[in-house]
Design goal:
Layout lengths: L1 H55 L1
Length: 57
């Protein structure tokens, strides 16, 4: 009977650990995605500026 209690405690610990880990991982992925998006946007803006320059010449 005592091992059932230990099993419940282990399950509760795993649930709490997942509830703490999942948001942290999601935040890390969000930050890296935003950095990638910003880099892509900068590259697109530079290419657009070059196209505008070449069009004026």
């Amino acid at each position: 009977m005592e091992w059932i209690n230990a099993l419940y405690q282990l399950a509760a610990f795993l649930v709490v650990a997942l509830l703490l880990i999942v948001p942290v991982v999601a935040l890390i992925q969000l930050v890296t995605w935003r950095k990638k998006s910003a880099a892509q946007l900068d590259r697109i803006e530079q290419e657009l500026a070059q196209i505008k320059k070449s069009g004026k010449k």
